[in-house]
Amino acid sequence: MNLAHDLSALEETVKRCRSLVPAVEAAGRALAERVKAGSKVLTCGNGGSAADAMHLAEEMTGRYRTNRKALPALCLAADGSALTCIANDWSYEDVFSRQVEAFGQKGDVLIVFSTSGKSPNILKALQVAKSRNMLRLGALGKDGGPAKELCDHSIVVPSDDTSRIQEIHGWLIHSWLECVEALAVAKS
């Protein structure tokens, strides 16, 4: 265990991410425009990325920094009965795409979290969202995998270390929420 090394590795990753700021802001503005227009946001991810997807959705429906109206956001990884039903009756590859099919409409937003960009269930959800003309944002890592090309806005954390990728994804969540609260909603 070398916590000082881990902190140094995070600092180096943060330095490499400075170049991502314009892309993060562009994605945040696109998200804010859709939210302002009344679109809903669907999020998904696996494992720790599911927790990130839940984090973003709960901050939108609840509160981030400001008191404001609740915003329509739904984490597709949060409903255990839906996940197990779809995985059992269809396949695990379909756990998110079936929900995008059920809830996603033209103009809505799908935000995916994936440290590899290779998860079949994420890729299938992105394909369904694309077929429905939904805005697709990806919080990705490593080289972005196939998900990178399926997203309208792909933010690829320049790291192969899952821990560092997820730490930067936390910053992405808060950055996008800042954009939404600054650009899309009136304060109450």
Topology:
Blueprint: H1 3-17, H2 21-36, E1 41-45, H3 48-61, E2 73-75, H4 80-89, H5 97-103, E3 109-114, H6 120-131, E4 135-141, H7 147-150, E5 153-157, H8 162-183
Parallel strand pairs: 1-2, 1-3, 3-4, 4-5
Commentary on this structure:
The chain is α/β, with parallel strands linked by helices. The chain has one domain (3-183): Rossmann fold (3-Layer(aba) Sandwich). The protein has helices spanning 3-17, 21-36, 48-61, 80-89, 97-103, 120-131, 147-150, 162-183, and strands at residues 41-45, 73-75, 109-114, 135-141, 153-157.
Task: Provide the residue-averaged pLDDT.
Answer: 95
* Shape by Cα distribution: globular
CATH uppermost class: Alpha Beta
H/E element order: HHEHEHHEHEHEH
Gap from first CA to last CA: 47 Å
The gyration radius over C-alpha positions equals: 16 Å
- The CATH homologous superfamily is called Glucose-6-phosphate isomerase like protein, domain 1
Share of helix, binned: 40-55%
Main pleated sheet: 5 strands, parallel
Sheet-strand content, in percent, reads: 5-15%
Spatial strand arrangement across the major sheet = 2-1-3-4-5
Number of helices: 8
| Strand segment count | 5
Write down the domain tally. 1
Helix- and strand-based class? alpha/beta
Named at the architecture level, the CATH assignment is: 3-Layer(aba) Sandwich
As residue ranges, the low-confidence spans are: none
Question: Do you know the CATH topology?
Answer: Rossmann fold
